[in-house]
Amino acid sequence: MLERLREHIVRHLRQCVQRRFDLTVEEIAIEVPPHVELGDLAFPIAFQLAQWLRQRTGQKYNPRALAEAIAAELPPMQEIARVEVAGAGYLNVFLDRARLLLGLQQPETAPEPSGEKIIVEHTSINPNKAAHIGHLRNAVLGDALVRLLRWSGARVEVHNYIDNTGVQVADVVVGFKYLEKKDRAEIEAIPGKFDHYCWDLYARVTAWYEENPEALELRRQTLSEIEEGGNPTAELAEYISMRVLNDQLDTVERLGIYYDLLPRESEILHLKFWDRAFELLKAAGLVTYETEGKNRGCWVMRLPSEEETGAREDEGKVLVRSDGTVVYTGKDIAYHLWKLGRLGVDFSYRPFRRYPNGHTTWITTSEATADGAPPEFGRGSAYLSVIGSEQTYLQRFVKEAVRALVPDPRVERSAHIAYEKVALTPRACLELGIELSPEELERQQISMSGRRGLGVKADDLIDKLEEKALGEVRARHPELSEEGARRLAHQIAVGALRYFLLKYTRTTAIAFDFTEALSFEGETGPYVQYAVVRARSIFRKLQEAGLSRHPLGPEQIPEINRFLNEHDDLWALLYLAARLGEFAHQACEHYEPAILAKYAFQLAQRFNTFYHSYHILSEGDPLVREVYLAITEAVCERLARALELLGIEVPEMM
RNA sequence: GCACCCGUAGCUCAGUUGGAUAGAGCGUCGGACUACGAAUCCGAAGGUCGCAGGUUCAAGUCCUGCCGGGUGCACCA
Asked: What is the pTM assigned to this prediction?
């Protein structure tokens, strides 16, 4: 409802300026004053106006006087209590507090469905090892974006790209065949979390290569057998990668993350996606065959800007190697063209997983689609790919290729959602028992490395969080059953982890610290969850005590206003709750869930202060008590909604 | 060498398309549980927003240069 009011005021301001100064204004900035006493909405329009008028007439104008003039022209509105000019020329608007409170009691109207389908790709961990917390940052970020986009009215299709024919899978195959000398049956007999087993094996293979460089030939040979398909090595790779994938999906399922489709690189290869994309690229003149230089025999793509600036000849990206094989960026171009329906070919599909909540995740296959009717995948209105910022350079080639081949605005709305990695502090490494070189000990951060087996495994961290949360729950609720306590501990652990990974903006490299990640106090998920739990318990107590509610109505507006106008702190809390949509919208627009996470924390903080300084249930004045309850209700609902958009559940008790 | 990201309190980080007196958490010190659950709250100390110029009514925010850190510039992904 706040959005509508804001738009309404902006419209009036635009008319005022048009009428009074004969100026057409496109964008009118809306701000929120730094303090309640200054008002609820601020318009710095007089500053801009003074500038425009000076440019037009050459005369100087006083912003304050201009603001006064506009204020005088603004027609009265029911939702607005008064308008003031403040500071050097701010036009400040004070809302009618009681009307906003009553308005918030109505359920929030959902944004209009836009009918667009946005394809979000995230997680995309190589299927050769367990996920570490860096991978979780990707998954949690992607999942929050999915939730935000759905909230904004879009249809979202969630992809987790599976690079099942790459070097990393080949490395683990090499490890099983040549290092461990295990046959298929022995590998299948390995018990427990297979991805954890591969985590160690992968690190051992990397170390082995370093000592025996000739073994790299085994990797090359294995990789080409996997790419070719239809041989025992490829079948082994298929078994390994699919088993690891299942384990990875178990891990993210613990956080409540699901996918619609798992597009596999093997199908991109075998279903001739690349061949089609290659034809298009050649026809558009985007790739050139190099006849000399270091890239002799390769097909190379150059960025348009490099051509304009006459960059050095050796720049550009090899898409096809001299042996005819395709690099990842090439396959990624094909995949992204398919996402927008530009390729003219399609995958076949089969159901891969059915979850207890009824969700089905599909996977691509080369066989004709057999069981079940898959939904229509691809043909998106835009795509968003959550990929680490270290790949920004390569993603530029993907974007440029798609831009050149898909001549419509969908490409401009598609984007690489870049985020910085999660690194370990030297202290965290020591806690993990990882040995560091002297120069590494000097550094502030140590990058995680799957190759080195250096990192915090996602499952291990979740285990630790659940264990710690369980201890806290048992201490507070000894009466709970084992199952009940575990469920609460799980919700709290997920809340802590998701919030921890989302509170940092995407451009911040997270320095992972166990103490901070395992904290349930201060700026954490559990802090916000606790605020909602407290709020809800008030309503439970209310019912238990058999107390009745006296719903507020329009006839009480003057009385409510008399009370709220004397309590700026209550109003500040209520107003912040009302601004949920504004923050969610911003988070969605900037692909930055941290904006919403910060909001949720701030709202929880203000609620806790309120909870502490006002006693709701024992309030004697029925109207005042009802106002307290209405505020609590409004805050509680917005907090829970914000958490939901971040993928965090609210426990029944804490 | 070139490109991108970062530099804000002791530590970890926010700071919306430039807007009013730069904020939060952690840590430190001192307080608050016989009232809706203390995973909470209140108070205190803590700042040359890396440095130097520039743009303007207004700069932590935009531009230029420098310093410091990270990442990329593969016929790896």
From this structure: 0.95
